Amino acid sequence: MSSSLDRSVVTDARRLVVKVGSSSLTGPRGGLDGFRLQALATTLAKRALDGVQVVLVSSGAIAAGMGPLGLTRRPKDLATQQAAASAGQGVLMAAYTNAFTLHGLKVGQVLLTADDMHRRSHYVNASRTLERLLELEVVPIINENDTVATDEIRFGDNDRLAALVAHLVDADALLLLSDVDALYDGHPSEPGSRRIPHVRTVEEIAHVDVSGHGSQLGTGGMATKVAAAQMATAEGISVLLTSADRLVEAFAGEDVGTFFTPTGEKSPARRRWLAHATSASGRVVLDDGAVEAVVRRRTSLLPVGITRVEGKFAAGDTVDLCDVSGRVVARGLVGYDAEELRPLVGQRLERGTRLRTGAPAPRPVVRRDDLVVL
Ligand SMILES: Nc1ncnc2c1ncn2[C@@H]1O[C@H](COP(=O)(O)OP(=O)(O)O)[C@@H](O)[C@H]1O
Ligand SMILES: N[C@@H](CCC(=O)OP(=O)(O)O)C(=O)O
């Protein structure tokens, strides 16, 4: 029987998110490596034809656009990266369309921004589209919408996006495919570095150096892959990190790559979104009693338990809830604008009180259903 605690989850998964990095699809000087892309598509198509719902998160647009634009190095400035992605995304999708068509499968392009993950309405919309594509037996192929991403709000690498997509579609497993076949206990170019076959807790790999450079065409290196694995496993999703070349062995259940066991339980979709996909617009500092109430008793947060309001936010935005030492203990959707909330700090508002804006009080600063303890 399949268990999320061992590798059988990869072989038995009914819904899989597979992320492939630029380095696995392209040659060293950019340009798509049609042979590798076809091999990947063939392996995934076999899975899909066996009834597995496969969602592919594919990088490679910038690298694929380098050839058409006459670039021999990955561009460093945002505008040229966006131009290359614009030229390359079509090339990438054309290659995937041809490769999957050979197996009688259809593909659908989905381009997402960090903002689409952050905004609840866009997130829900993306989820609906992906569900419909899967129902229609189409393989969704997702990439960041590079042409509209800005330096401040972009994924840059696709590892985090892949973890968020795994949350979004509630995948059984996430496969992170790179040019390196596993996580190593030192940079793989260092003699003596050894493969780490299994990670059960974050602490186990706290000593591992993942800061080393990545491939010439990839973006995040190993650090973003480990962070993505932690995001997925925290929500009960198993992760296998290996190379695209080892995918067939991975599906055969062989001991390849690095397997990350789930560290947490699956939580409701809305909480998953709140905990991982949103970014906080401000902070609200809680006194000890309020921390106790929110974290242990899971109650709504009222103005009386707040000692300080930091930043600029509007009602409905996400805020971090911190204890007096500044440690973030929870995150939630705030019920007030920052300016409206500041004068209420520490106040015990009686029922029937009206705020200066005319709105009734007390309403919770963060309702318990809009709150996730971190
Ligand atoms: N501890 C480590 N274990 C494995 N790979 C590492 C480690 N530290 C750094 N790396 C580098 O991370 C690279 C993969 O990241 P990246 O180039 O961003 O790939 P991708 O394009 O697949 O996202 C590998 O080529 C490897 O050299
Ligand atoms: N969205 C970009 C991804 C950038 C990138 O290099 O990501 P990755 O190879 O996953 O580290 C692209 O398609 O080129």
Automatic annotation (TrEMBL):
Binding site residues for ATP: K19, S178, D179, T219, G220, G221, M222, A223, T224, K225
Record has Transferase as a keyword: yes
Catalytic activity reported: L-glutamate + ATP = L-glutamyl 5-phosphate + ADP
InterPro entries recorded: AceGlu_kinase-like_sf, Asp/Glu/Uridylate_kinase, G5K_ProB, Glu/AcGlu_kinase, Glu_5kinase, Glu_5kinase/COase_Synthase, Glutamate_5-kinase_CS, PUA
Residue numbers binding substrate: S59, D146, N158
Entry's Gene Ontology BP terms: L-proline biosynthetic process
Gene3D superfamilies, alphabetized: Acetylglutamate kinase-like, PUA domain
Keyword terms of this UniProt record: Amino-acid biosynthesis, ATP-binding, Cytoplasm, Kinase, Nucleotide-binding, Proline biosynthesis, Transferase
Pfam families named among the record's database cross-references: AA_kinase, PUA
Localization: Cytoplasm
One Gene Ontology term, aspect cellular component: cytosol
Residues in PUA domain copies: 282-362
Pathway assigned to this chain's UniProt record: Amino-acid biosynthesis; L-proline biosynthesis; L-glutamate 5-semialdehyde from L-glutamate: step 1/2
Statement: the UniProt record of this protein carries the keyword tRNA-binding: no
SMART domains (UniProt xref): PUA
First-tier enzyme category under EC: transferase
GO MF: ATP binding; glutamate 5-kinase activity; RNA binding
Enzyme Commission numbers on file: 2.7.2.11
Highest taxon, organism lineage: Bacteria
PANTHER family the record matches: GLUTAMATE 5-KINASE, ISOPENTENYL PHOSPHATE KINASE
Protein family per UniProt: Belongs to the glutamate 5-kinase family.
HAMAP family (alphabetical): ProB
Function: Catalyzes the transfer of a phosphate group to glutamate to form L-glutamate 5-phosphate.
Protein name: Glutamate 5-kinase
Native species: Ornithinimicrobium humiphilum
